[in-house]
Specification:
- This protein is α/β, with parallel strands linked by helices.
- The protein contains 21 helices and seven strands.
- Among the domains are: about 60 residues, no CATH class; about 110 residues, 3-Layer(aba) Sandwich (D-Maltodextrin-Binding Protein, domain 2), CATH 3.40.190.
- The chain has a five-stranded mixed sheet with strand order 4-3-5-7-6, sandwiched between helices.
- Helix 2 packs antiparallel against helix 6, helix 7 runs parallel beside helix 17 and helix 15 runs antiparallel to helix 16.
- The chain is globular, with a radius of gyration of 28 Å.
C-alpha cells in the first residue's frame, strides 16, 4: 500500500462512518430493486397463464352451443330471476333476493346476473362469469404461497391449481363450486394475513370474506373452520369479531332459507342412495375422494407430484403450514359426514393440494419448465380433446354402481357431461315452438326422461329466458292423474340406464308403457333424435 493510499483509508472510513445511514439506504434500495425484479418475474408466469386460460375459455364458450342442464340450468334460472328483480325494483330487490335462489345461497347467481346485465342474457354471458374467479384464485393462491414458499414455487402453485383438469371443466360450467374454491382460497389468505387474529382490521376483513363464502355455498365452513379455530387460540376477541361479521352477512340468506336447505339435504341424501355413494365416515368414503382426486381432478402425473410434495413437507414440516393442513383435514372430514359424494364437492381442497405440490419446486426450480408442457397438454386434452388418443385410460376399476368411479391415467370427458365443446341442437326451442300456439295460452308439458341437456331444469331455464307460456312437470312416479293432466308429454324410447336417468325412479318403464298402450289418449305428433342418439316422442294428450 502506498503512503497516499494509507492516508486515504482513514478519510474513507471517516466518510463511511459519517454517512453510514446513506450507505444503508442505498444497500436496501438495491436489494429492494432486485427483490422487485424477482417478484415481477415470478408474477409474469401467473399473468401469462391467466391470459391463456381466458383465451381458451372464451374459445370454448364460443364453440359450444349445448344447453345447460341440471344444476347449471337451475343456477342460470335463478340468475335470471335476480336480473329481472333488479330491473323491475331497483335497489329494493335486495329484500327479495333470499327468496329467488331456492335452496342455494345467492352470491354466485348474483354475479351471473351482473354478467347478464353487462353482456346480455345468454348462456355465454353466464359461463363467462367464472373468468373473474380464475383471476381471484390465481392471486389468492400466489399470495398465500408467498407466505410458505419461494416466489417461483408460489407462482407455480397458482398456475397448477387453475390447470387442474377438474377445475378446467368447472371453469366453463355455471356451477357454484368454482367460485366456492376461489372464496375458500381467498378466505385462507385473509386468515393468514390476520397474523393469528392479532390484527383487528384484517380480522374483520377475514370475517367479511367468510360471510361472502357462506353466501356462496354452505359447505364453505368445512374448509375454513379448523384453520380459523387454530388461529383463534391466540386472540379470542378478534376472532369473535370476525365470526360476528361473518354471521351477520351470512344471516341475510340463512335466516330465510333453513327450510329450503333442509329439503336440499334430504334430496341429496336420497340421491346418494340411488347413486350408490359410500356411507358416512366409512373406509370407502375416504377412498372415494382419493380416487376422485387421482382419476378426475388431477390425473396420475399431477397426483404423483402431490404425493412427492406431501413427503417433502412431512420431512421438514414448518408450523406455518398448519392452516393448509387443517384446510385439507377439515374439508375432508366434513365431506365424509355428508352423505352425497361428488368430486366437485372437494374442489375447494385443490388450492391446498397445489401449494403442497409446489414443494417440489422449492429447490428444483427447473421442474417448473418440465411441468408447463404437461399442464398445457392436459388442459388442451380436457378442453378440446385429442382424437388420436383413447377417450380414457383406466388404471384400475373402482366400485361398480350406477356411477362407477375409476382410477385413471387420464380421461378426456367427465361421464360424457363435460369435455370438448360441441355444436349440437338439443331441440328445446323446437319443442317449445311446437307446443305453443299464437294465442299465448298456458300449455302444460310433461317430461318423462331426465336426459342431461334435455331435462326439466334445461326446459325451465329456456322457458324463463325466451318467455314461453309453458309449464313443465317431471313425471317421476307413476300417477295416472299426473300423466293425463298435461297438454303434451315428452317420452324417450329408452327406459333404463343412467341416461336418461332412470335410476331416479323405478316407474319410468311403467309410465312409458301406460302411454304407449293408449293411442286413443296419447297421439304421437312428432318424433326426433337427440345428439346422444336417444329418440324422443312428443305426444298430444287427448282430454276426456
Amino acid at each position: 500500500m502506498t503512503s497516499r493510499e494509507s492516508d486515504e483509508c482513514p478519510v474513507m472510513l471517516a466518510w463511511f462512518g459519517r454517512y453510514s445511514w446513506l450507505v444503508e439506504v442505498l444497500a436496501r434500495l438495491h436489494s429492494g430493486i432486485i427483490n422487485a425484479r424477482t417478484a415481477m418475474r415470478h408474477r409474469f408466469l401467473p399473468a401469462v397463464s391467466f391470459l391463456y386460460l381466458v383465451a381458451a375459455n372464451l374459445t370454448w364458450i364460443a364453440r359450444d352451443t349445448r344447453p345447460p342442464f341440471w344444476d347449471m340450468a337451475i343456477h342460470q334460472s335463478s340468475a335470471l330471476r335476480i336480473y329481472e328483480a333488479f330491473a323491475n325494483l331497483g335497489i329494493r330487490a335486495i329484500a327479495t333476493l333470499p327468496s329467488l335462489t331456492g335452496s342455494y345461497p345467492p352470491l354466485y347467481q348474483s354475479i351471473v346476473a351482473v354478467f347478464y346485465a353487462a353482456f346480455g342474457r345468454s348462456v355465454d354471458a353466464a359461463q363467462s362469469a367464472n373468468l373473474f374467479a380464475i383471476a381471484l384464485l390465481l392471486v389468492a393462491t400466489y399470495e398465500l404461497g408467498r407466505t410458505l414458499l419461494t416466489p417461483l414455487a408460489a407462482a407455480a402453485a397458482a398456475v397448477l391449481v387453475n390447470f387442474y383438469p377438474y377445475l378446467a371443466w368447472l371453469s366453463r360450467e355455471t356451477l357454484i363450486d368454482y367460485w366456492l374454491t376461489t372464496m375458500v382460497a381467498l378466505a385462507i389468505w385473509m386468515l393468514v394475513r390476520t397474523n393469528e387474529f392479532s390484527d383487528r382490521q384484517r380480522s374483520l376483513v377475514f370475517g367479511v370474506v367468510c360471510g361472502l363464502g357462506m353466501l356462496t355455498k354452505w359447505t364453505f365452513i368445512f374448509f375454513v373452520a379448523l384453520p380459523a379455530l387454530w388461529y383463534a387460540r391466540k386472540n379470542i376477541k378478534n376472532a369473535a369479531i370476525a365470526a360476528c361479521a361473518a354471521a351477520v352477512i351470512a344471516g341475510y340468506w340463512y335466516v330465510h332459507a333453513l327450510h329450503a336447505l333442509t329439503d336440499l339435504l334430504a334430496t341429496n341424501t336420497a340421491g346418494a342412495v340411488n347413486e350408490g355413494d359410500p356411507r358416512r365416515l366409512s373406509f370407502q368414503a375416504a377412498v372415494f375422494y382419493i380416487r376422485a382426486m387421482e382419476g378426475y381432478q388431477l390425473f396420475l402425473p399431477l397426483f404423483l407430484a402431490f404425493i412427492a410434495g406431501a413427503i417433502l413437507l412431512a420431512r421438514k414440516f414448518d408450523r406455518a403450514w398448519i392452516p393448509v393442513v387443517l384446510w385439507i383435514v377439515g374439508g375432508w372430514l366434513g365431506l365424509m359426514l355428508f352423505q352425497n359424494k361428488d368430486p366437485r364437492y372437494s374442489a375447494p381442497l385443490l388450492p391446498a393440494v397445489a401449494l403442497i405440490t409446489a414443494q417440489i419446486f422449492q429447490r428444483k426450480e427447473v421442474l417448473v419448465a418440465v411441468f408447463m408442457p404437461l399442464l398445457l397438454f392436459q388442459h388442451y386434452l380436457v378442453s378440446f380433446g385429442v382424437r388420436r388418443l383413447p377417450p380414457a385410460v383406466v388404471l384400475a376399476k373402482g366400485v361398480e354402481g350406477p356411477l362407477s368411479w375409476n382410477w385413471n391415467l387420464y380421461t378426456q370427458r367427465y361421464f360424457d357431461l363435460w369435455g370438448p365443446p360441441a355444436r349440437e341442437d338439443w331441440k328445446i326451442r323446437y319443442v317449445l315452438d311446437r307446443v305453443t300456439g299464437p294465442d299465448s295460452k298456458l300449455v302444460r308439458l310433461g317430461i318423462v326422461p331426465d336426459i342431461p341437456r334435455f331435462d326439466l331444469s334445461a326446459f325451465e331455464f329456456y322457458i324463463d329466458l325466451w318467455k314461453f307460456p309453458v309449464k313443465v312437470d317431471r313425471l317421476v312416479t307413476f300417477d295416472e292423474n299426473a300423466i293425463v293432466n298435461n297438454d303434451y308429454i315428452l317420452v324417450s324410447e329408452k327406459d333404463r340406464g343412467f341416461e336418461p336417468g332412470s335410476f331416479f325412479t323405478m316407474d319410468l318403464r311403467n309410465i312409458n308403457q301406460y302411454i304407449f298402450r293408449r293411442p286413443e289418449s296419447f297421439r304421437v305428433i312428432d318424433s326426433f333424435p337427440l345428439p346422444n342418439g336417444d329418440v324422443i316422442r312428443l305426444y298430444k294428450v287427448a282430454r276426456s
